[in-house]
Design brief:
There is one protein chain. This protein is an alpha/beta fold. The chain is about 45% helix and about 20% strand. The chain contains eleven helices and 14 strands. It has a six-stranded parallel sheet with strand order 3-2-1-4-5-6. Helix 2 links the parallel strand 2 and strand 3. The longest helix is centred in the C-terminal third of the chain and has 25 residues. It is globular and about 55 Å long. The structure holds ligand NAX. It catalyses: (S)-malate + NAD(+) = oxaloacetate + NADH + H(+). This is Malate dehydrogenase. Keywords: NAD, Oxidoreductase, Tricarboxylic acid cycle. Its EC number is 1.1.1.37. It comes from Lupinus luteus.
């Protein structure tokens, strides 16, 4: 039998945490043959509710779940973890300035970076879900110099999956037959959902989404805004933000990162920019990536037309501004 993998979930008493931990314990994230030990972190006001989650995990009698560490101590939570999914953060409340929210998250991510850097297992992979996800991941990278930048990422897979879902609904095809959409940039409303290289598997072979949809007006406007604003649509309908879809996307992100993407398929991940596609180096930016042996690689050589170029640049500009704001909170 395989040794258990230790998976940290921060913000585990929150609503994404509540949807995510049973998925991990069932093998959705790392496979049906991979035992796990869950490390759950939240803050002291949520300690009782966190303990309730632990009680329910015991009650669910998951065969793959070999242990639960539920704690409000960052060092205890981070010790020995192989995978860290950082969902905890400070939400923007009504009337709060952007800078105040940023400042709270910068201090959270700074301290978690240092705990992970010192206490996580070697080669720990980190996924930041909490917003502002890209910039929180960047702060983490800055303050955890012992964690290689290739091991730090943020979640844009939910946006990627939303784009697949929209194409599937539009064409009335199975979502599993749609692939290679791209989310470029920030996990925010400036992200650019790009279908220019996306395809659908049909009985007659693989066809470009642009050819099948044959409605450029829809693809160039409504499709993009629907994906960009899907989070707000969920809040409007549910009076709560996306949780099950976010948890599922976090599992997809880690599973593909660890177990690899199928030949010919790419996914979107927020990763440290090396300057590919003329995106400024030093931002955490969502790119199309393939993965193999636990490592991602940015898909190279895709043609970027003028329409796309503007959108790639716009979301990069927003990320540069967020980065500047985050740094201004450090001093
Ligand atoms: P909740 O408010 O339900 O849960 C957040 C939890 O984090 C709470 O239990 C809170 O006590 C805890 N927390 C706060 N500070 C902490 C700290 N320093 N250490 C550990 N835990 C801490 O929010 P939820 O709906 O679960 O969303 C969590 C985060 O995901 C938010 O930042 C949200 O904006 C972000 N999202 C990101 C998405 C993405 O695709 N990247 C999509 C979904 C979601 O909106």
């Amino acid at each position: 039998a395989k040794d258990p993998v230790r998976v940290l979930v921060t913000g585990a008493a929150g609503q994404i945490g509540y949807a995510l931990v049973p998925m991990i314990a069932r093998g959705v994230m790392l496979g049906a043959d991979q035992p796990v030990i869950l490390h759950l972190l939240d803050i002291p006001p949520a300690a009782e509710s966190l303990n309730g989650v632990k009680l329910e995990l015991v009650d669910a009698a998951f065969p793959l779940l070999k242990g639960v560490v539920a704690t409000t101590d960052v060092v205890e939570a981070c010790t020995g973890v192989n995978i860290a999914v950082l969902v905890g953060g400070f939400p923007r409340k009504e009337g709060m300035e952007r800078k105040d929210v940023m400042s709270k998250n910068v201090s959270i991510y700074k301290s978690q970076a240092s705990a992970l850097g010192k206490h996580a297992a070697a080669n720990c992979k980190v996924l930041v879900v909490a917003n502002p996800a890209n910039t929180n991941a960047l702060i983490l990278k800055e303050f955890a110099p012992s964690i290689p930048e290739k091991n730090i990422s943020c979640l844009t897979r939910l946006d990627h999956n939303r784009a697949l879902g929209q194409i599937s609904e539009k064409l009335n095809v199975q979502v599993s037959n749609v692939k290679n959409v791209i989310i470029w940039g920030n996990h925010s409303s400036t992200q650019y959902p790009d279908v220019n290289h996306a395809t659908v598997t049909t009985p007659a072979g693989e066809k470009p989404v642009r050819e099948l949809v044959a409605d450029d007006a829809w693809l160039n406007s409504e499709f993009i805004t629907t994906v960009q604003q899907r989070g707000a649509a969920i809040i409007k309908a549910r009076k709560l933000s996306s949780a099950l879809s976010a948890a599922s996307a976090a599992c997809d992100h880690i599973r593909d990162w660890v177990l690899g993407t199928p030949e010919g398929t790419w996914v979107s991940m927020g990763v440290y920019s090396d300057g590919s596609y003329n995106v400024p180096a030093g931002l955490i930016y969502s790119f199309p990536v393939t993965t193999q042996n636990g490592e991602w690689k940015i898909v190279q050589g895709l043609a970027i037309d003028e329409f796309s170029r503007k959108k790639l640049d716009l979301t990069a500009e927003e990320l540069s501004e967020e980065k500047a704001l985050a740094y201004s909170c450090l001093s």
